[in-house]
Q: What sequence folds into this?
């Protein structure tokens, strides 16, 4: 299984008995995201205790090859996901699964749900059955219709080697400088917000660029804390690897909250100051 925190969050929720019924996952690599989801599905559907390369049953092979009857993928036909596709999904999931514990649907490129298919999907996720799990995968959760997004638990699943197709590279440099400023000179961070960052951020999209970049960087630092391997572009932040893992997990949780908050709060100064106050160590 690859290193993703989103999958670890899912596993933790499952083991604690508090797994939600629908998840919206924003990722910079949908292929890797789905690959990790398949590993997660092997674990939670295992009739015994999951172990890799197990040959006791055929379940893992069926999941890996996407031939499990209770695992359904939905992807756009041409440019949209049509109402008829969702109706077919609902029909398939009218009964409990035979070979696994859960019926699972994975909606790829979920931003392609049109108004009709999204409305049909709504009725599906508002009255969930205990044996049904759903995953909506997208490169940008902001493109998901609000009524669907509000009914899902949101996870961010970013990969160190993935491509941020929607984020200009300059924002990574800005984010690196910002992290260094906060870590080294906390007392001047509020002034840095006012004098440096606010003049650079003109709208919600640019604020999103910044915080998505911050999330990605802290995630890479967290992975480097374990592996010792740090991308050359983050070398000037290597001094942060002296921190413990909780330092990075706390900031990832905060950034996740802020990214969600950007759905309704566009007070740039407030959000930047919140990040400084809650994400800094004096």
A:
């Amino acid at each position: 299984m690859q290193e993703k925190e989103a999958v670890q969050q899912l596993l933790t929720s499952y083991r604690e008995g508090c797994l939600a019924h629908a998840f919206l996952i924003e990722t910079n690599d949908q292929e890797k995201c789905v690959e990790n989801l398949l590993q997660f599905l092997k674990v939670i559907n295992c009739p015994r205790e999951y172990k890799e390369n197990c040959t006791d049953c055929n379940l893992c092979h069926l999941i890996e090859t996407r031939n499990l009857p209770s695992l359904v993928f939905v992807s756009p036909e041409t440019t949209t996901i049509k109402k008829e596709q969702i109706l077919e999904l609902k029909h398939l999931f009218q009964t409990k699964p035979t070979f696994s514990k859960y019926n699972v649907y994975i909606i790829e490129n979920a931003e392609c749900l049109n108004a009709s298919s999204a409305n049909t999907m709504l009725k599906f996720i508002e009255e969930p059955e205990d044996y049904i799990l759903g995953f909506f995968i997208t490169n940008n959760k902001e493109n998901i219709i609000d009524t669907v997004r509000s009914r899902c638990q949101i996870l961010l699943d970013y990969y160190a080697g993935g491509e941020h197709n929607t984020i200009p590279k300059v924002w990574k440099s800005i984010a690196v400088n910002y992290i260094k400023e906060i870590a080294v000179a906390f007392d001047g961070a509020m002034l840095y917000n006012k004098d440096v960052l606010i003049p650079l951020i003109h709208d919600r999209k640019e604020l999103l660029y910044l915080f998505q970049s911050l999330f990605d960087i802290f995630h890479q630092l967290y992975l480097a804390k374990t592996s010792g391997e740090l991308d050359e572009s983050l070398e000037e932040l290597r001094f942060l690897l002296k921190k413990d893992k909780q330092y990075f997990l706390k900031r990832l949780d905060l950034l996740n909250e802020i990214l969600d908050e950007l759905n309704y709060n566009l007070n740039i100064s407030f959000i930047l100051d919140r990040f400084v106050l809650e994400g800094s160590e004096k």
Q: What stands out?
A: The beta strands are 22-27, 71-74, 103-107, 132-138, 153-157.
